[in-house]
Design brief:
The chain is α/β, with parallel strands linked by helices. It is built from 37 helices and 21 strands. The radius of gyration is 38 Å and the shape is globular.
């Protein structure tokens, strides 16, 4: 249709033509709307300020600070701000509460104010700028970190949440809040060389020293030739390498290195050719060798020993390190295997010198060099096996070094499994012989290279657990649940051969947290002893680091049983490491000068400080506090050789005092309430419990309690009942504390027979808790033996478990158990650590502690660690007298040999049991008694010979006695007894008569006879005794009495008249 025809058509229709529609103008677009327009979703323009902002008179900008959010995002932001306001209000209220002394003890190590709580970037991932998100996807959330200065410069560097620096920051913030004192995290770091020097080579004496303080020297300062070693000195330090670092970092071929070193002297016998590898090996060995020298810091004050000077061992060999760096600069474009070896050893040298960031940089150089050399790939099949295995050892040693460095500093890993195809290095005898070393094999297919293989596997397991843990967003579930960590490390532990485990005394287990003393093999090569210790110490160090986030995690606002259990695991590993270090350093030279071991100890000590602050009244607190003192001794020992350790000792001593002050303050806050509860219990006044007394109202106010008061009541009750440890109440459910108080604490009771001043036992009752806590066990008593040392309560109990606390893992409901003389021990003294807790200075025994219940009761509450399962071969009645009488005699026979002749003096409550035990142990048993009246019974019980001593002028025996157990109350005629004792025999007085033991002195000297004290049995011996008795059908001869007031009185009266045959047992009605 043409335009003319269109007009004609319109005219024909009689309508005026409509004007053409104007073309719609294209909407103007801007590169990026301003903040205000973008948030309000209105049109913006390219002017600045835009028309909208100009008309409203507001600021126009494109900073991105005004985030566009959805309604859910806004709610989350409001909640975050509300929580922040509450935290700030709490900080303002805290000084007032401290001043009024009404605050409760702090049980969390809060995040330092300088560290963002929660994540490194508080913005929600969905509200971040898409341009800042990798790949346009959801941005990753990170754990907390801390910026802190660890060098001479005030410039701060970042350390992640797995680092000890971050943990120190939390401790510092906690102490500042708890003690109301200003603390600096910087002052909680040891005075290392990195605080005084930019690099280890910028130090010199003479004109460069000002006022006793080191100053930096220009890096182009010429090196004095006198700072280098003579050929003889070089040989001395190189020899150290093969017995120390070589077996821990097998990255050199000994034969090739020695050939290379000899070639450097080919043209001169006064000066060798330059070699970066030789220089860095010398630097590392000088650092180690100088630290091994004993007594360098002895006789100096603590402050003087902590000052770093140019003779400090941590920077020994610095000039060789500097020359190595100069030579390496020429190899950067064309690296070789030697270049990589130098970078690895440089990182080790810097790490031992406490130059943390320089060590990290050197490690990163080694990583890139390894990639350049293709070590991440499996060696070609055409390559000789010796060379291929060396490449593998280099790669995996670097992997270990980089993994340790990254986890230690809390920084992202540089090496990743996805980029490597290199298999683990071999450790067979063939490759061990091809390595150029002459170490003898250890048997069971174990060589000197096996340690490196299992050390690599340990690091792989730890890294896998670390990655799983820290790749998740921080929350209560992953902080509290240690399962992934435990499973991986336990799986690794199962594969460690015995040849790489250090044996323990008293049947202790290697790699455990039982803190049993080490059994150092005297004639084992030093390198093997060190390998064993380093492997176990590294295991404990890794466990400490992996479990440490559970200590007062900022996400856990209330006590969590699983969190507490994980925190105790962490402390247990830190204590195990500390006890090992203390024993090894103070009794051997195996780890003398080993800088990494010092750093592990520092990490463990700081962890223990945090644990004690977080759990001032926990079950492991006393042991952890004692371990802190041991760590000070370790630091002081190291401090004799290098200043950073002496500084660590000073810092830890100061922290120990602060820890004690905090614990004391926590205990004082509960003092008034504890005294009130005690007075109420003694007076029998139940008005406070009923809540209707004016006194109660005056002291406590209304009967409705807030959360803080409820927490205080936990401590009050824990202190008012002696048999429970205080910490066992931490797991009680106090959620209904604001309900009627008498209803909440009306507990069922059970019968207890208590002594009185007139000596007559009286029936009483005591409360039975609705819910057990900690490792407590409720036992229904089925039999109770009566012993001559009884304080009425009874300490020969047998019963059936009715209930167990949440921390009891060895017993269950229905188990038959027994208990004896000892109730508890400290668990951390030398006696406890050696399995002799019966001699613990802090032991809890009947007659020495204020204990109000024992086996003379219908029920008893006991710790599971002092309960012993009864074997099937023993009845309850037969097992009861064995808990003390059997344990006493068995302990005296513990190390007897089957060919020994054992004499038993007296056939009574102890004697008749001793005869049976000795006979079943295969010994010749000679019984000595006043008359022949018990001859037939003694022979029936197992005696091989019976001698009546009354009226005899001389005794004759078929075999001299190797051991004599004195079980009779009356003192023996030693003039008759000593002549039948064998040379170097032993006499065990077991009866408790209270008098003096008078024995001819000269006979003991001439015959070498020992008089040996013995006090019941340790827990290990007690368990052995019960198993032995059940297996060999050893049964006491008993008289039964009803467990009533009259029955107990009748049994005691008969025992005092010496008429019981032979043991009395009380049976509940």
């Amino acid at each position: 249709m043409t335009p003319s025809s269109t007009v004609s058509s319109a005219s024909a229709s009689g309508k005026s033509p409509s004007p053409p529609r104007p073309r719609q103008k294209k909407r103007s677009q801007v590169a990026r709307a301003c903040d205000w327009c973008r948030v309000h979703r209105i049109k913006c323009d390219n002017d600045h300020p835009c028309s909208n902002c100009k008309s409203r008179g507001g600021q126009c900008g494109n900073s991105g600070t005004m985030k566009s959010t959805t309604l859910p995002h806004a709610y989350r932001e409001i909640e975050r701000l509300r929580q922040r306001v509450q935290e700030l209000e709490l900080e303002l209220e805290l000084p007032k509460e401290r001043k009024a002394d009404n605050d409760k003890p702090v049980h969390q190590l809060n995040t330092p104010p300088s560290v963002p709580p929660g994540t490194s970037d508080e913005r929600d991932p969905e509200t971040r700028d898409p341009d800042l998100q990798l790949g346009g996807g959801r941005a990753k959330r990170f754990w907390e970190g801390i910026y802190i200065s660890t060098a001479r410069s005030p410039q701060k560097t970042w350390y992640g949440s797995s680092s000890v620096f971050y943990f120190i920051g939390r401790i510092n913030a906690f102490l500042t809040s708890a003690l109301q004192e200003t603390h600096s995290a910087h002052r909680m770091l040891p005075n290392s060389a990195s605080f005084l020097l930019d690099v280890p080579t910028t130090v010199s004496g003479g004109d460069h020293s000002q006022g006793g303080r080191l100053v930096a020297v220009p890096t182009d300062d010429p090196v004095n030739a006198g700072d280098y070693l003579t050929p003889t000195q070089e040989e001395y330090f190189l020899d150290l390498f093969w017995q120390s670092y070589y077996t821990s970092f097998p990255i050199l071929d000994e034969l090739e290195f020695k050939e290379h070193y000899q070639s450097l002297w080919a043209t001169s016998d006064k000066e060798r050719k330059p070699s970066a590898l030789v220089d860095i090996v010398l630097a590392v060995c000088m650092q180690y060798g100088m630290a091994r020298l004993p007594g360098v810091g002895r006789g100096l004050s603590a402050a003087s020993r902590a000052n770093v000077n140019d003779n400090d061992a941590t920077i020994a060999g610095r000039w060789h390190y500097r020359r190595c760096q100069t030579l390496l600069s020429c190899e950067m474009e064309s690296p070789t295997i030697s270049t990589l070896q130098c970078h690895i050893l440089c990182s080790i040298y810097l790490c031992c010198g406490s130059f943390q960031n320089m060590a990290d940089n050197a490690c990163s150089l080694a990583v890139r060099t390894a990639y350049m050399l293709g070590l991440h790939l499996e060696p070609p099949q055409t390559m000789p096996r010796r060379e291929g295995e060396m490449r593998k050892r280099l790669w995996w040693t670097l992997y270990i070094l980089e993994t340790k460095m990254s986890m230690k500093l809390g920084r992202p890993f540089l090496l990743h499994d996805s980029s490597t195809t290199c298999s683990l290095p071999a450790d067979d005898r063939e490759i061990a012989m091809l390595s150029g070393s002459s170490f003898a094999p250890l048997g069971e297919n174990v060589t000197w290279l096996t340690w490196n293989l299992h050390n690599t596997k340990l690091m792989l397991a730890a890294r896998a657990a670390y990655t799983v843990f820290y790749d998740n967003v921080p929350n209560t579930s992953n902080v509290c649940n240690p399962q992934s960590i435990t499973e991986r490390l336990e799986a690794w532990l199962k594969g460690v051969p015995k040849a790489l485990k250090t044996k323990r005394q008293n049947n202790g287990a290697p790699f455990s947290t039982d803190r049993s003393p080490l059994e150092i093999e005297q004639f084992t090569p030093l390198w093997l002893q060190r390998q064993r210790l380093l492997l176990e110490l590294m295991y404990h160090n890794l466990c400490t680091n992996l479990y440490r986030p559970s200590i007062s995690c900022a996400l856990a606002r209330a006590p969590h049983p699983l969190t507490d259990r994980t925190a105790m695991k962490c402390a247990a590993h830190a204590m195990a490491l500390t006890h090992m270090m203390h024993q090894v350093l103070l009794s051997t030279s195996i780890l003398a000068g080993w800088h990494e071991a010092f750093q592990w100890q520092w990490n463990a000590a700081m962890t223990l400080v945090g644990f004690v602050l977080a759990y001032p009244e926990g079950a492991s607190t006393l042991a952890a506090r004692s371990a802190i003192d041991l760590s000070v001794a370790v630091f002081e020992n190291f401090g004799n050789s290098f200043a950073v350790a002496a500084s660590a000792a000073n810092i830890m001593s100061d922290l120990s005092a602060k820890v004690d002050l905090f614990i004391e303050q926590s205990q004082e806050k509960q003092g008034v309430a504890m005294q009130l509860a005690t007075n109420c219990e003694e007076s029998g006044d139940d008005s406070l419990i009923n809540g209707n007394s004016t006194t109660a109202q005056a002291v406590d106010g209304p009967s409705s309690f807030d959360d803080e008061t409820a927490a205080e009541i936990t401590g009050v009750l824990a202190q008012s009942i002696d048999i429970f440890a205080a910490e066992t109440y931490n797991d009680f459910d106090w959620s209904g504390i604001n309900s009627n108080f008498s209803d909440r604490f009306t507990m069922p009771s059970y019968t207890v027979f208590k002594g009185q001043e007139n000596g007559i036992p009286k029936k009483n009752t005591t409360s039975k808790p609705d819910q057990l806590a900690g490792d407590s066990v409720l036992v229904k008593v089925t039999a109770a033996g009566l012993c001559g040392t009884d304080m009425v309560l009874g300490h020969e109990g047998v019963g059936v478990v009715e209930a167990v606390g949440p921390h009891c893992h060895s017993l269950k409901k229905g188990d038959r158990v027994g208990w004896g003389y000892q109730v508890d021990s400290c668990g951390h003294c030398i006696e406890c650590l050696q399995g002799a807790e019966t001699f613990c200075p802090e032991r809890a025994l009947y007659g020495e502690k204020n204990l109000d219940q024992g086996s003379f009761a219908s029920h008893a509450i006991w710790r599971d660690s002092f309960l012993y399962k009864i074997p099937e071969g023993l009845s309850d009645v037969d097992a009861a007298p064995l808990q003390c009488g059997g344990a006493t005699t068995f302990s005296a026979l513990h190390n007897v040999q089957p060919s020994d002749t054992v004499g038993i003096l007296g056939v009574g409550g102890l004697g008749h049991l001793a005869i049976q035990f000795a006979a079943k142990m295969g010994c010749r048993v000679v019984v000595l008694s006043g008359s022949d009246s018990k001859r037939a019974e003694a022979i029936r019980l197992g005696a091989h010979e019976f001698i009546a001593t009354k009226g005899a002028a001389e005794l004759k025996v078929s075999w001299p006695l190797n051991r004599l157990l004195v079980t009779a109350a009356a003192p023996p005629n030693w003039d008759l007894i000593l002549p039948i004792m064998a040379p170097r025999s032993a006499i065990y007085p077991l009866s408790v008569s209270g008098g003096n033991l008078e024995i001819p002195y000269m006979s003991l000297i001439l015959q070498g006879i020992t008089v040996q004290g013995s006090l019941v049995a340790s827990r290990h011996q007690h368990r052995q005794m019960l198993d032995f008795a059940g297996l060999h059908k050893i049964k006491p001869i008993v008289e039964k009495f009803p467990m009533t007031e009259e029955g107990i009185k009748q049994a005691i009266d008969k025992l005092e008249r010496n008429e019981v045959y032979y043991r009395a047992v009380l049976i509940p009605e």
